[in-house]
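chain below, 330 aa
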Amino acid sequence: MADLRLDPTTGNWIIVGKIGSENDNPYQHEECSFCPGKEELNPPPIITINDSNGNWVVRVFPDKIPVFTIEEELGSEGDGVYDKMHTFGTHEIIVENPKHGITLSSLGLDEITQVISVYRNRISDLKNDRRLRYILFFKNQGAAAGSPVDHVHSHLIATTVIPQRIDLELKSARKHYNFKERCLFCDIIRQEIEQELRIVDRNEEFVALCPFAPRFPYETWILPLKHFFSFQNHLSSKDSLVSFAALLKTTLQRVEVFTPAYHVVLHISPNEKSPFLASEDWNFLPHGFHWHLEILPRISNIARFKREEEFFTNPLTPEEAAQQLKAVKF
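prediction:
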């Protein structure tokens, strides 16, 4: 049985223990369980989006071996200096298209817009549960990124804790806002546009750029040009949805020229409805945090320093990466 244990030296929550049994393998079927006709191999759907002919185009269902489960009791306990929590939460799979062996970037703009709308709706719905502090969306594209299924899909995890990297980002944003009364990300966007050294692409609402200190070659972020801290509220507009989908499509296509494997992670605000976050420390969020999406390519010959997380080594500067990505022709 797994639980969440807090590392008191770093503040990082670690999932410790087995998830499922040793014999559990959700991908043991000879045929892809995400393909049409194999729906019975998955749990009952939470959402199904159908086309005009009644065929599904997007499906959302619980993961067969979830990391977090809503059936788990909400609770925590102490053991001297140590703390641990139950793995209460949800773990959902979003199958983004019925076709096998394609990527999100190969879908049409209307299809990508529909998929992002599903992301938004699921995040908005999960944030109605006040027990959940954070909703984490991520995509692992390609075997090198850890995906065992060659069928376009993403994960949505809702937890009672804030992931460490998000927490560090929030603390940096809060420190910047408390000192300057400005959003850190707005300041970054303003400088990047002025310098034009690391801009990959932009449209009327969003900008794609290589961050100043990237962990991976061709690492690219997509951010709203105007300040928005709430992903689900911002993308309630159809125009914003289409604009975001358009830049996401072309940015993924640029990255795929250099590697077929990458992670996509949404960095959104914590659950504003959670009473655990109702404190002075979080009042800065509407003014000092800026949602964004990060694309983290996996380059096989790039390893972390001594295979640890304390240092990342990246031989490609973001300035060089931005120029190479920008030069991709469609």
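The first helix runs from residue 109 to 126. The chain has two domains: 3-159, 164-326.
thats it, cya
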